[in-house]
Amino acid sequence: MSIKVKGNPFPEGYTCIRCGKCCLYRHFMMTLSATSEDVSRWKREERYDILKYVSTISPDVHDLWVKNGEESHRCPFVRKDRGKPTYRCGIYETRPEVCKGYPHGKKCLNWQNLDEER
Ligand code: SF4
Ligand code: SF4
Predict the structure, then answer these.
(1) 96 burial class (0-12, 13-18, 19+ CB within 10 angstroms)?
(2) For ligand 1, what atom is nearest to the CA of residue 23?
(3) Do the domain assignments include residue 37?
(4) How many angstroms separate the alpha carbon of residue 10 from the centre of ligand 2?
(5) In order along the chain (118 residues), what is the average pLDDT of each group of 10 residues?
(6) Looking at ligand 2, which atom is closest to the CA of residue 75?
């Protein structure tokens, strides 16, 4: 789930409606990895709750989100808003770099619905 950080990561006219699909999508989760800076920051912040889902394969490759040796089907930090159909990131302030830029100027996983709503 990406909210604007530096510039808009969405194509023009699109915005995040916080449907949560990206953070709940197994195949997308399997593509996620953290940067070495993410891992260093989490260590500095003593975020062992996050680090326990990181599998370091080499000094520069940190697989996300791994639980008991297997990729999680959904991000362990995605949270549903109470009484609403929307979701939020439970570690927003320190989320990995890859999440900050999503969907990297392309249409996100909810692009069909977004098209219908326009
Ligand atoms: S799938 Fe798209 S609209 Fe839905 S939460 Fe992710 S970025 Fe936002
Ligand atoms: S860290 Fe946050 S933005 Fe990234 S996949 Fe998890 S819930 Fe989504």
Answers:
(1) buried
(2) 6
(3) yes
(4) 16
(5) 58 84 90 96 98 95 94 95 96 96 83 50
(6) 6
In a domain, 7, yes or no: no
Q: Is 31 within the bounds of a domain?
A: yes
> Quick check: pTM over 0.90?
no
Instruction: State residue 85's pLDDT score.
Output: 94
Helix (H, G, I), strand (E, B) or coil at 67: strand
Q: Report yes or no on 26 lying in a domain.
A: yes
> What are the pocket residues of ligand 1 if the criterion is a CB atom closer than 6 Å to any ligand atom?
1-2, 16-22, 103, 108-110
Instruction: Please give the residue range of the domain that contains residue 60.
Output: 22-117
Number of domains comprising the chain? 1
For ligand 2, say whether the CB of 99 is within 6 Å of any of its atoms: yes
- Do 108 and 24 contact (CB within 8 A), yes or no? no
The answer to whether the bond into 103 is cis (omega within 30° of 0) is yes
pLDDT value of position 96: 97
